[in-house]
Amino acid sequence: MKNKKSKIIILHFTLSFCILIFAFCIIAIGKVNAAELFFETKSQEFTQGEKFLANIFLNTEEESINAIEGKIVFPDYLLEVKEIQDGNSIINFWIERPKIGQIGVIAFSGIIPGGYQETKGFLFSVVFQTKASGSGAIEVRGAKVLLNDGKGTEASVKLSSFQFSISQEIPFVPLTVETIKDTDPPEDFKPEIAQNFGMFEGKYFLVFATQDKGSGIDRYEIQETRNKRQGENWAEAESPYVLKDQNLRSYIYVKAVDKAGNERIVIVEPKYLLKWYENWWIWGIIILGVFVLYISRKILWRKFIKSR
Amino acid sequence: MVIFHIMIKHITYFDVSVILLALLSYPVYASVQEASTSPLSTACGNGVVESGEQCDVGGSNGACPATCSTSCTTNSCGGGGGGGGGGSYVAPSIITQVIFTGRAYPKSTVTLLKDAQIAATTIAGSDANFQVSISGLSGGNYIFSVYGEDNKGIRSSLLTFPISVTSGATTNVSGIFISPTIAVDKSEVKRGDNIAIFGQSAAASEITISVNSEEELFVKTKSDKDGVYLYNFDTSPLETAQHFTKSKVALNGEISSFSRVIGFLVGAKNIMAELPEAITKEDLNNDKRVNLVDFSIIAYWYKRPSPPSSVDLNNDGKIDLVDFSIMAYYWTG
């Protein structure tokens, strides 16, 4: 009887051990194949009022990924977002560009046409400033990474969190984050005029996008003018931008400005040039010419009469 | 002088207007001629190798060490004699450049994308070899992609290279082997009949075709002198279901990655397939390209209710990240 009981106990232990090993293998395999979103900072311990930079990276493991979305969640009573830097990001086109807006959350999504397959792809950085002492974590939530397979298959993704602590100490000299030295303008780009009858009531619109390998794109500005000469009348704009001149007769200047103030200006020539009689300055020249000729004629005629 | 004064007297204001208009119409006419070609750029320097051009890398055209001159002819840089005594010293300018070399299909158009936007195009030689370069870059991380277009206008999948470019340095990316294009002659094939799997790759090379079934089936064929291959696949071993096929090429010890995947149905009847053209469902504005314009259209409907079915690429009634991912796969720039 005792033997039978001990045999049952041994059997149970053996079975439990096997299940444990099996479960560990499953989890281990899952971890090896999953993509990963992770943080990188210089430290995990900060003082009050200190600024620090948190870089967010993507490890695709062995998969080719072409789309990603997620939310960076942080305790807003401990941290404040001062700046977001996406210069040099692997994301070619942002669907939702990470920006300072919602309290405690930074949403982001974007695509990498053609796919990306590396272990450390830079997404963007966040400059945080500590507000109060305490401990907390910065996490990625709701993350999705999709395979570059033409079907948008979701890849498994491992999310890591960044644990930090803020001491009560207030440093004499405020600690700051080193700013990026950026002297290069944004990359060259070619805006395109498009039309789609489901958008903007069928009006023509302009699409444009570029990257900046330094501090990141700060804003775009646009100027539509019927003169070929660029003026100073810039208006901040986003893509897609509904054209004011729906007759497509204006020169369109698009300026990309990065966060360091460097500029790249490109020009889109009008699809339909103005006819000569639509140019007011041509009329000005004609009227001036006629006036000059009239005066000259009068003067010369008087001289001629006097000489006679 | 008298004649001059008489002329002045008899010239009317109408004559003056006509003369002025004749003088002013010249620049307007010239501008109209310019606008009728391309609204964005002139022929040489637009990044497209056109008739009469040996090369065109757009804004990177220039003197050596650029590979392409401002008149769109190939530069011969370095080497050679000459020099002699005297002459002035020209300090070497700092060039940040990336050069891509590889193999596509004979006489095919090869397109280079920089961060998903067209940066340059070139025409491969009759031996399918190509070289394309881009210069004037800033230091930083770029994602370059190349793809080829075969003699039927079918595009290959994108081959992507994330490259960290160092300012002032030339980066060479060589050994690129663009995957074959692939198409099938039937969208549905009667089980037991043949389905033609064809496309284009490098000339006289070994093509491996994969057909997925319960187990993956592999067959081999050879491409002809123009790089064209065709294989009549017997569907007898396949079950009645949806199947997928893809191909890759091997030549001189080099192997490409697999091509795009194309599907066909094994069923009870034969239905001929339309040739897959450059126009795909992802080309939302029907300009034969999948690029930023299509991205902007789909982004307009992102998280909006009742998107048009033409924009909903996976037909799930909403625009979300999956639709963007599908578009990103078929990207052409």
Any chance you could write out the topology, listing elements then pairs?
The complex is a heterodimer of chains A (308) and B (333).
Chain A: H1 2-33, E1 35-40, E2 45-46, E3 51-59, E4 65-73, E5 79-85, E6 93-96, E7 105-116, E8 121-130, E9 134-147, E10 154-155, E11 157-159, E12 162-166, E13 192-195, E14 204-207, E15 217-225, E16 235-237, E17 241-242, E18 251-258, E19 263-268, H2 280-307
Parallel strand pairs in A: 1-11, 2-12
Antiparallel strand pairs in A: 1-3, 3-8, 4-7, 4-9, 5-8, 6-7, 9-10, 9-12, 13-14, 14-17, 15-16, 15-18, 18-19
Chain B: H1 2-10, H2 13-37, E1 97-103, E2 109-114, E3 117-123, E4 129-135, E5 140-149, E6 159-165, E7 170-177, E8 183-184, E9 186-190, E10 194-200, E11 206-211, E12 217-222, E13 228-234, E14 242-251, E15 254-255, E16 262-267, E17 271-272, H3 292-300, H4 321-329
Parallel strand pairs in B: 1-7, 9-16
Antiparallel strand pairs in B: 1-4, 2-3, 2-5, 5-6, 8-10, 9-17, 10-13, 11-12, 11-14, 14-15, 14-16
**What is the element string of chain B, with H for helices and E for strands?**
HHEEEEEEEEEEEEEEEEEHH
Largest interface: A-B, 72 and 67 residues
Specify the CATH class of the largest domain in chain A: Mainly Beta
Q: What is CATH's topology name of the largest domain in chain A?
A: Immunoglobulin-like
In CATH, the architecture of the largest domain in chain A is: Sandwich
How large is the share of residues in beta strands of chain A? 35-45%
Query: Largest sheet of chain B at a glance?
Result: 7 strands, mixed
Strand content of chain B: 25-35%
General description of the model:
The complex is a heterodimer of chains A (308) and B (333). Chain A is an alpha+beta fold and 308 residues long. Chain A has helices at residues 2-33, 280-307, and strands spanning 35-40, 45-46, 51-59, 65-73, 79-85, 93-96, 105-116, 121-130, 134-147, 154-155, 157-159, 162-166, 192-195, 204-207, 217-225, 235-237, 241-242, 251-258, 263-268. In chain A, strands 2, 4, 6, 7, 9, 10 and 12 form a seven-stranded mixed beta sheet that branches. In chain A, strands 5-8-3-1-11 form a five-stranded mixed beta sheet. A four-stranded antiparallel beta sheet of chain A has the order 16-15-18-19, with no helix packed on it. In chain A, strand 18 and strand 19 form a beta hairpin. Chain B has four domains: 2-37; 58-76 and 95-177, Immunoglobulin-like; 183-272, Immunoglobulins (Immunoglobulin-like, Sandwich), CATH 2.60.40; 279-333, Orthogonal Bundle (Type 1 dockerin domain), CATH 1.10.1330.10. In chain B, strands 9, 11, 12, 14, 15, 16 and 17 form a seven-stranded mixed beta sheet that branches. A four-stranded antiparallel beta sheet of chain B has the order 3-2-5-6, with no helix packed on it. In chain B, strands 4-1-7 form a three-stranded mixed beta sheet, with no helix packed on it. In chain B, a hairpin with a 5-residue loop joins strand 11 (206-211) and strand 12 (217-222). By secondary structure, chain B is of the alpha+beta class. Chain B has four helices and 17 strands. Chain B starts with a helix and ends with a helix. Chains A and B meet through strand 4, strand 7, strand 9, strand 13 and helix 2 of A and helix 1, helix 2, strand 5, strand 6 and helix 3 of B.
